[in-house]
């Protein structure tokens, strides 16, 4: 029997395939990790914004989680859009105590500016889910919310990463600099060491789903047994190439290209 690495995403959808569950599954597939998904919300969205959101009933989210965990191996898991506290509590209950690397992409707002989770859910995520995770991957606005800090320099990014680990109990924090100007610099702080990952900024509007793709790539690499540092290093390369070779699809922020890199 063939051994296979398995990754799970718990997130919302994007019918245009650029972000959310669809981006996660494409990334898992490209990185040869068997992809599984639990859907939290069905989102009508495209490259221009969010048109509507339908939340999956709580009992159905719980049943999907049970379907996966009762039957399938999960070598790494990630969350994306979790719209409200009730959903977070179910996920918290189901992932607590599991010895599975857990990547949180603390999705709050889409590139278009549309809110994807409620205000009180943002607090709940910080206070109750962060202590469970192996790593959390905020962009600048998400890191600003989590820490209450103004983040506009590389130095404040590093301070935010330290605060997320030491004050909120995340296993590690990857603060992403896509929303700053200049090079695309991310910092990974694991409680002891600060690591920097830098790529040249690509001049494109096609950045829809970059955070989903990056966190899914990290999840897939971790499912293969790579260390967090190795997974972030390779994930950064994967997302950079996916942006570099992105598609001019739609009339807004186009999607990244998940075929851009094929390596494990
Ligand atoms: N224009 C760009 N050129 C190169 N890398 C980018 C660009 N925009 C974002 N990135 C990188 O893509 C990843 C996703 O970051 P970011 O855009 O900050 O997150 P999110 O998609 O969650 O808002 C990070 O590694 C970031 O540095
Ligand atoms: C269902 C869903 N989840 C997450 C996002 C946001 O994705 P992200 O990768 O942060 O990309 P941007 O939309 O910020 O470019 C989403 N839009 N939909």
TrEMBL record:
One of its GO terms (cellular component) is cytosol. Pathway: Cofactor biosynthesis; thiamine diphosphate biosynthesis; 4-amino-2-methyl-5-diphosphomethylpyrimidine from 5-amino-1-(5-phospho-D-ribosyl)imidazole: step 2/3; Cofactor biosynthesis; thiamine diphosphate biosynthesis; 4-amino-2-methyl-5-diphosphomethylpyrimidine from 5-amino-1-(5-phospho-D-ribosyl)imidazole: step 3/3. Belongs to the ThiD family. This is Hydroxymethylpyrimidine/phosphomethylpyrimidine kinase. InterPro entries: HMP/HMP-P_kinase_dom, PM/HMP-P_kinase-1, Ribokinase-like. Keywords: ATP-binding, Kinase, Nucleotide-binding, Thiamine biosynthesis, Transferase. Residues 14-257 form the Pyridoxamine kinase/Phosphomethylpyrimidine kinase domain. GO terms for molecular function: ATP binding; hydroxymethylpyrimidine kinase activity; phosphomethylpyrimidine kinase activity. CDD domains: HMPP_kinase. Its EC number is 2.7.1.49, 2.7.4.7.
């Amino acid at each position: 029997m063939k051994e296979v690495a398995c990754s799970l995403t718990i997130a919302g959808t994007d019918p245009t395939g650029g972000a959310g569950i669809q981006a996660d599954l494409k990334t898992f597939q490209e990185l040869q990790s068997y992809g599984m998904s639990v859907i939290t919300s069905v989102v009508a969205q495209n490259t221009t914004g969010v048109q509507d959101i339908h939340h999956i009933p709580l009992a159905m989210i719980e049943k999907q989680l049970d379907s996966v965990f009762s039957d399938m191996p999960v070598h790494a898991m990630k969350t994306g859009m979790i719209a409200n506290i009730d959903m977070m509590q179910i996920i918290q209950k189901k992932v607590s105590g599991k010895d599975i690397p857990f990547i949180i992409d603390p999705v709050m707002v889409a590139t278009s500016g549309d809110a994807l989770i409620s205000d009180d859910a943002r607090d709940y995520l910080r206070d109750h889910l962060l202590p469970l995770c192996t790593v959390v991957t905020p962009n600048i606005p998400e890191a600003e919310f989590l820490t209450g800090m103004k983040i506009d320099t590389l130095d404040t990014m590093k301070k935010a990463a330290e605060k997320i680990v030491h004050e909120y109990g995340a296993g590690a924090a990857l603060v992403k600099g896509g929303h700053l100007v200049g090079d695309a610099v991310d910092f990974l702080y694991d409680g002891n060491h600060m690591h920097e990952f830098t790529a040249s900024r690509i001049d494109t509007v096609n950045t829809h789903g970059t955070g989903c793709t990056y966190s899914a790539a990290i999840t897939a690499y971790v499912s293969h047994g790579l260390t967090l540092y190795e997974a972030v290093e390779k994930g950064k390369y994967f997302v950079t190439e996916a942006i570099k070779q992105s598609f001019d699809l739609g009339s807004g922020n186009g999607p990244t290209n998940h075929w851009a890199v094929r390596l494990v």
